[in-house]
Specification:
This protein has 261 residues and is of the alpha/beta class. It is built from 8 helices and 9 strands. The protein is 34% helix and 23% strand. A hairpin with a 2-residue loop joins β2 and β3.
Amino acid sequence: MTPRVLPRVLPRVLIVAGSDSGGGAGIQADIKTVTMLGGHAMTAITAITAQNTLGVQAVHPVPTEIVVTQMRSVIDDLGVDAVKIGMIGSADTALAVAEVLAGLDVPVVVDPVMVATSGSVLADAATVAGLERLIARAALVTPNLPELAALGGREALLARAAAVLVKGGHAEGETVVDRLFDASGQVARWENPRIDTRHSHGTGCTLASAIATGLGVAMSLPAAIERAIAFVRASLEHAPGLGQGQGPMGQQDATGFRCPD
């Protein structure tokens, strides 16, 4: 039987991140996002969390060698067009992941996950320090304002990363401003009305995975970010309203954003 040839581009996105048992953030949000944008999601799970819309009850890091084996397994067989890094699990894992990425010539998007939307801490000081190697490999780092401060500020990040997207969701006001910087200064700026909802769990994961999917089909960085922001907003508007706290978004109902045929 002759294999069916798909006519559209299918970006292969490797996601290195933690699992969210509530399905709102982490690997679960990443897979939904990449799939809805027309990509193929592959995963290397770095940590197993017990969490829901009210918070994180437990975190169990996956052994570093298992994380690396997951990565090499899919890289060696399926290939990779882009990588998204989320919750990294431990300092040792951060260093090992960076070593694997050194052998890949693909764009890497790093979402420096340190604190969950609920306020639960997901990275200790040693793990944050281990992020340095990953940030140095990144085509883009996507910190929110608290993460930006923890990493030393925009200038400090740009000394190590090619580009930084400063997310404005944690700022006050009715308008959310996201700004893209590289070594030359501000490259682009996006302003959008704030969407008033408590169902925003997984916004950072979704944004970073959406950007990585765009970069996986050679979209320019500003274009990939613009589409990703629009996808996040559509996902917020389609949130199913689950849970008693910070509920999941509705990526599965945010249509019209797939990669072109």
